[in-house]
Amino acid sequence: MPGGALEIDAISKRYGRKVALDGVTFDVRPGELFGFVGSNGAGKTTTMRIALGVLAADSGQVRFAGEPVTHETRTRIGYMPEERGLYPKMKVLDQLVFLAELHGLSTNDAHRATELWLARLGLGERRKDEVQKLSLGNQQRVQLAAALVHDPDVLVLDEPFSGLDPIAVDVMSVVLREKAATGVPVVFSSHQLDLVERLCDRVGIIRDGRMVAVGTVEGLTRGAGSRLVVTAPAARPGWASTVPGARVIESSGATTVLELASSADDQAVLAAALATGPVTEFSRQRRSLTELFRDAVAQGGFT
């Protein structure tokens, strides 16, 4: 089954008058890391639960490899919930073996897979510990192991980096990249937007149950307005106000950051800066995912 795309196609969900999801559509391609971001309550977890079959959509469809997701398909999905989904009094080793067997592995295969992931995630020395005695970060590692132990064909992870220290973040990042490299589609939500920007091939931004942007960060940046950083030591405040389509968004000393409308001419900005004297910096500034996210959440789109 590996090699198919996970498709979320026009999924809608209501709770009475509350619209939780309104035609949510995106896909996660084979071998892709897809970041799913949005504010609390935007619809991320609801979307993931529908993909898992935990919730039923009012309309729309979830497909994998071109076919509607069935119970059998779901057994091939590795899911990591945001909330702790482990048995607190069960030992780590026993728990992972049990979960692997639930996914159809034999007892021997379940033990082999469990030992592999315990070693891979740095949990070997904690195999006999009860989950409740682990730190929150180590519990998070166990949850990732639980999502991976049956060698899934799809990974769906809800806030997998929550509570992890920088070393654990690096370990988990490498694991997710390696899994994607085998052709598995990987989708995860996170509020750590710098991490999403660094890791993901594409991102989707959801606001109030609606997708407001899907694409690469670079691609979304190109459609989100252009910025210029200009350093003109002799320029007086307001020097750029005469340039059509240029808006000053930050000014510090001799350096001014301008946002340009699509119709604006960067050469006109340069000419206006040179008219004030020497220009020691004239460069484009790529907007960060955090800035794109703020625009999308605040306004439902990009400025």
Automatic annotation (TrEMBL):
Membrane topology: Peripheral membrane protein
Record flagged with keyword Repressor: no
Subcellular location as annotated: Cell membrane
Record domain ABC transporter: where: 6-233
Gene Ontology molecular function: ATP binding; ATP hydrolysis activity
GO cellular component, one term: plasma membrane
SMART domains in alphabetical order: AAA (SM00382)
Protein known as: ATP-binding cassette domain-containing protein
